Amino acid sequence: MKAVNTQTLPYGTWPSVLSAKVVTSAGSSFGMPTEYRGSVLATELRPEQGGRVALVERQATGVVRDVLPRDYSVRTRVHEYGGRAWWGGVDQLYFCCWEDQRLYCAKGSPDAFEAPYPLTPEPIEQHGLRFADGVETPDRQWVIAVAEIHASDQERLGLVARKQDEAVNVVMAIPTDGSAVNDPTRLVVLSSASDFVSNPRVSVDGLRLCWLQWNHPNMPWDGTELMTACIATHLHSDTSTEAGTTISMSDAHCVAGGASVSIVGPSWLRDGRLAFSTDESGWWNVSVFDPNTQEVKSVTQLTHAEIGAPAWAIGTTRFAELFSEPDAADDNAPWLAVAVTERAEDWLGVVRSNGDLERLPVACAAVKGLSPTIDGGLLTHIDLTDADSEHRRFTHEDLATGGTGKALFNPKTSGAIPGFKCSIPESFEFESAGETAHAFFYPPAAKELTAPDNEKPPLIVMGHGGPTAHASPALRMGIQYWTSRGFAVADVNYRGSSGFGRQYRQGLNEAWGVADVEDCVNVVSALCEHGKVDPQRCVIRGGSAGGLTVLRALQTSELFAAGTSLYGVADLEALLADTHKFESRYLDTLIGPYPQEAERYRLRSPIHHASDITSPLLVLQGDEDKVVPPSQSTSIVAAVAAQSLPHAYVLFAGEQHGWRKASTLVRALELELWFYGAVLGFEPDDDIAAPEEAVGF
Fold first, then answer.
1. Which of 248, 449, 466, 527 has an alpha carbon 20 to 30 Å from 510's alpha carbon atom?
2. Which residues does residue 188 pair with via DSSP β-bridges, in sequence order?
3. What is the pLDDT of residues 145-157, one digit of tens each?
4. Who contacts 663 (Cβ-Cβ below 8 Å, separation ≥6)?
């Protein structure tokens, strides 16, 4: 029986309290909660400030305030995707500044930081010197970090790129006294023997260094080497250099991993051993290396879940050693906190001194950050599935007593929005090309609204980017924007997605543009067979790699009434020639080596089969995108326009790979809603005018 106040309206036309502006305000998000000198610091993304990433402190009173001037945005461009952009020393804070990419230092405590000053020289070319993912040495004289050096700055540092016009990635030591600002020779390159490096970490005694390295064509989830070396500092004083220290490295060698084994998140333990995640078993599990015995021992033995994730963001880790000193007589004491991914959904666990892995009674769908506290607890960044997340996103967990956690930061995404009803995702398995594929299905959800009898909802199929990544069931207000208006959403974890073990993750090897497309097409068929959606009103959207999936699906299937490509790949050969170093050989695995497989590249490139697209297309692109350059979008739009298909192409000024500005986030959502209404024949409740860029509607 329908509630008395229930209103009946066609799907897609439901009025929603989640306007594009409300969803965008929820885009302000915290990250990397870390204890520093008695306070908890975190980054906060602020779309309303042009996508600035602020560094904030949570005081004991619960007040959250900025600790750096507004001039500084804490974000790195290393690998273009960025990652760990700040870290603390004994009494100094280090961070990478987005505007110039230099490494800065701020002395003092969060309540009274001195004015930040640079530690690295001005680059010769804009953003020519980039830094990330560092650590202070115990003597406080050096920071060891990842450095990415571009063309003009390579010569003055005595570096030569392996490939012309390619960046050089190294492990670099930077003096903390600021002497390298005017004397770049004070920058010490410790390792430059590989195409990529990440996760440099110094042992507690300061005598050993570890880092990860890998070479083309591998990505870090394909195969990496875990390296260790001895490091030493020496006093120096000569006529050409001010008194200070130099640093050197010796006995560098690989202790784990290789070309076909992925190591992620290495971290030195207090007892001098080195912990890391390895997928040698087919699932990322934690192991430890003992430098004294040179032995590697497994800590966890998961076979249907894993402690690890693709390292798109530099500095990725999924476990943390707790600071509490375990009682020698208590083999049940908490030792490691771990984030476990099982079928693309996360749970929080603890490894005890006896090796037992215990799942903690902490509600979560995605764990994005783990950081130990001095009191033996754990700072966590947890996303939930439902909207009751105001007091659950960032918590301090008392692992010794099993405490449920105290809120640290209150994100703007919460269940406090009046009239909002959250769509709860259902895990959905379906058959695709003789294999099992996965998705999360979100049904329409709104308070006091229903659709006419016998009407099925329109479906939005979402293909995630990467493509080596995965969709989780964590609350995403961008999805709720659609479900609250009467759309159903299928968030597809096609073959090749992470979160299901190495074998599933390799499901796209030489099959990108085929397996992912099959899975996005077959999820529609399966949902239609289950009577969950209207087969005549299915659309597909995706960003980056997901954009290629969109274009290929529109070319190979008649199931989709329209598609939206957000900064999507259209020409694989052009991508090879015009993308950044990190992904420049990614397609060797996803498509095949080039030029040997040139014909396959052309067969999979949507630009060469644009005439097969017969459905309307919306293309959204950032004009500063270095990952998938605007030329990719303009080429497919020109081809679609030549066929007189309804389409719209919007180029957002000042945006890179993904949206960060509030104005862009709002306009992009409203454009999509207008587009689906125009294509599927309904009038959205929102007042959205047709964009000037629309053609053929």
1. 527
2. 173
3. 999 999 889 998 9
4. none
What are the φ/ψ torsions at residue 168 (nearest 5 degrees)?
A: -110, 130
Within this chain, do residues 562 and 672 fall inside the same structural domain, yes or no? Answer: yes
Q: How far apart are CA 401 and CA 381, in angstroms?
A: 20
- pLDDT of 124 strictly over 90: yes
User: Range of 407's domain?
Assistant: 318-416
Q: How much is the CA Rg of the chain, to the nearest whole Å?
A: 25
pLDDT, one tens digit per residue, over 589-638 is 999 999 999 999 999 999 999 889 999 999 999 999 888 889 889 989 99
Separation between Cα atoms, residue 10 and residue 644, nearest integer Å: 30
Report the predicted TM-score, pTM, of the whole model to 2 decimal places. Answer: 0.92
How many whole angstroms from its chain centre is CA 484? 26
Judgement on whether residues 563 and 549 belong to the same structural domain of the protein? yes
Calculate the CA 315 to chain-centre distance: 11
**What DSSP assignment string belongs to 549-588?**
HHHHHHHH-SS-SEEEEES----HHHHHHHS-GGGTTHHH
Q: What gap in Å lies between CA 487 and CA 472, rounded to an integer? A: 19
Q: Where are the beta strands (DSSP E) in 186-333?
A: 188-191, 196-202, 208-214, 225-238, 241-257, 263-268, 274-278, 285-290, 295-298, 319-321
Q: Give the length of the chain.
A: 697
In a domain, 599, yes or no: yes
Query: Which amino acid makes up residue 15?
Result: P
Report residue 173 as tokens: 């030591």
Kindly state the DSSP code that residue 412 receives in the 8-state scheme. Answer: S
Q: Do residues 490 and 637 both lie within one domain?
A: yes
In what helix (H) or strand (E) does residue 672 lie, and over which residues does it extend? Answer: helix 662-680
Q: What angle do CA 63, 64, 66 make, to 5 degrees?
A: 135
Q: Give the β-pairing of 538-543 and 562-566.
A: parallel
Q: Please report, for the domain that includes residue 544, its CATH number.
A: 3.40.50.1820
Q: Does 674 fall in a domain?
A: yes
For residues 510 and 652, state if they share a domain. yes
Residue 61's Cβ-count burial label (10 Å; 0-12, 13-18, 19+) is exposed
